[in-house]
Amino acid sequence: MSDAERVLLELADRYFLERVSFGRFCFHELIRQYAHSCVMRHESESGRRQAIGRMLGYYLQAADCADRTLHPRRDRWDAIPRQSPEGPPTFRMEEDAQTWMESEWRNLICAMHYAADHEWSRQAIYLADTIAQFLDETGRWEDAEAIHYKALKVAKDLEIPRAIAQGLLNLSVIQWRTGRFRDTFKSAIAARGIFHTIPEPRAEAIALDWIGLSMWSASDYRASIAYFGEARDVFHMVGDVHGEAICLVHMGISFWHTGRYRETLEDLQAALGLFRDLGDRRWEANTLTNIGDVRLHLGHHRDAAKLYAEAQIIYRGVSERRNNAILMANVGNIKLYRGEPDVALAHYREALSVFAVMGNKPHETAILNDIGVAFFRMAKYDESLIHHQRALSIADETENIYELTRALLGGADANAGTGRNAAALDGYRRCRSLSRKIGDPYLEARALNGIAEVALHNNDQDAARIYWRQASDIFDQLGVPEAETVRIRLQCLGAAES
C-alpha cells in the first residue's frame, strides 16, 4: 500500500473524507473549504504548481491508459509525456477502463479546461484528444465540442500544426453527429490539408474518410465513394487493415443508396471478415447490423433477424447508447416488415428517446420517418403525416436530402390515405425529383408507384400504367419485394380493362 493510500484511508476513518466507491474518495464541503484555505496559507506558489502538475500528469496518463485499453487501434500522438506519476491506474480489461472513464470523465473535462486556461497548454491538448472517442461514443457531444474548440484555440496559439489538425478532425466528428454536415466537411478538409503537408498519412486517411461521410450525409453518393476509396488506398499504403475495413463499410453503405446492392453486400461481408480477424467486436456488430439492413430491404427478413440478434449479443457487452438505440430501431423494422406496426412503434419510440436526448439529428430524423411509416401501416394517417413533417423540418435544417426525400414520400402516402390527392401528387413529384438528383433509384421507384396510385384514383388508367411500368423496371433491377407488388397492380389493371 502506498503512502497516499494509507493517508486516504486514515482520513476516511476519521470522517474527513467520504468513500464514494472502491479507491475513490471525496471531501465533505466544509473540509474541502478548510483544506483549500490551509493550502493557500501554508503552501508556496511553487508547491501548489507542482501539485497541480502532478494531478494533471496523473489524469493524462490514466486517461491515456484507459483509452488505449478501450480503443487500441485509434490514431494517437506519440508526443504525450510519460511522467510516470506515482500510482496511475492500469486496466487489464475493457470493463475496468470503461468504469474508470464513466467515473472520471467530468473530472477529466475540468482538468482539461483548467490546463488550457493556465500554463499547461499542451496537457490540455492531449487531454482533449485522449477522451475524444469516449465522449463521442457515450453521446456527450456538447462537452466534447467545448473541449475540442478550446484545444483548437490553444493549438493555434502555440502554432502546432499536428494539434490544429487533430482539433479540427475531432470537431468534425461531433459536427457530423449533430447533423452539421457542411461544418463537418470544412473541418475535415482543413484537417486533411494539414495532415497531408506534415505529412501524417494515417491521420490523413481518417480525415478523408470523414470527408466521405460528410458527402454521404449530403446525399452526394458518388463523391462519398470517391473519398472512401482515397482513404482506403492510403490506409492500404500504411498497412492499416482496420482503417481499410471501416472504409469498406462506408463504401458499402454508399453503394446501397445507389441501388448497387451486390457491391454493398460484397464490401460489407469483406469488412465483417476483417473485423472478426482483428477481434474488433464493436465494428463487427456495426457491420452485422448494416448487412441486416440490406437483407431486410431485399425481403430476407429471417436473415436480417439473425444478423440483428448476433449484433445484439455483442452490444450487450458494450455500453454505447447510440448503437443500442440503432439496434432497437432495426428490431422495429423487422416487426414492421412482419406486419406488427404497433410493436414496431414501441421500439421506434424507445430509440427516438435516446437519439433526442443525445442530440443525434441524423438518427432522430430517420426514426421520425420510421414512426410515420408505422402509423401509416396502422391507417393512422394524420399521426403519420405529423411525424413525417417533423422529420422534414429537421432534415431541411440539417440539409439531409435523403431523409428529406423519405419525409416527402411518407407525407405523400399519408395524404393519399386521407384522400388529399393533390397534396399527395405534389409530394410524390418532389420526391421523384430529389431522388433522381441524389441518384437513389429505390426512392424514385417508390415515388413513381405513388404517382400511379393517384393517377388510378383520378381514373387515368393510361397514366397509371406508364408510371407503374417505370416503377416496375426499377424495382426489378433492384430485386426488391416491391417488384412483385407492382407487377400485380399492372395485372389487375389489365384485367379491369379486358
Explain this structure:
A hairpin with a 2-residue loop joins strand 1 and strand 2. By secondary structure, the chain is an all-alpha fold. Strands 1-2 form a two-stranded antiparallel ribbon. Helix 4 packs across helix 7 (141-158), helix 8 (161-177) packs parallel to helix 10 and helix 16 (321-337) runs antiparallel to helix 17 (341-358). Helix content is 81%, strand content 2%. It is elongated and about 95 Å long. Among the domains are: 1-42, no CATH class; 247-303, Serine Threonine Protein Phosphatase 5, Tetratricopeptide repeat (Alpha Horseshoe); 319-418, Tetratricopeptide repeat domain (Serine Threonine Protein Phosphatase 5, Tetratricopeptide repeat, Alpha Horseshoe), CATH 1.25.40; 440-498, no CATH class. The mean pLDDT is 89. It has 24 helices and 2 strands.
Key attributes of the depicted protein:
single chain, 498 residues, mainly alpha, Serine Threonine Protein Phosphatase 5, Tetratricopeptide repeat, two-stranded antiparallel ribbon
Structural class: mainly alpha
Q: Give the spatial strand order of the biggest sheet.
A: 1-2
CATH class designation of one domain? Mainly Alpha
Averaging pLDDT over every residue, what do you get? 89
- The CATH architecture term of one domain is Alpha Horseshoe
Shape: elongated
Give the CA-CA distance, first to last residue.
93 Å
Give the CATH topology of one domain.
Answer: Serine Threonine Protein Phosphatase 5, Tetratricopeptide repeat
User: What is the H/E order?
Assistant: HEEHHHHHHHHHHHHHHHHHHHHHHH
Number of strand elements: 2
Largest sheet: 2 strands, antiparallel
Helix content estimate: over 70%
How many H/I helices?
24
Radius of gyration: 27 Å
In CATH terms, the superfamily of one domain is Tetratricopeptide repeat domain
Beta percentage is: under 5%
List unreliable stretches of 5+ residues.
Answer: none
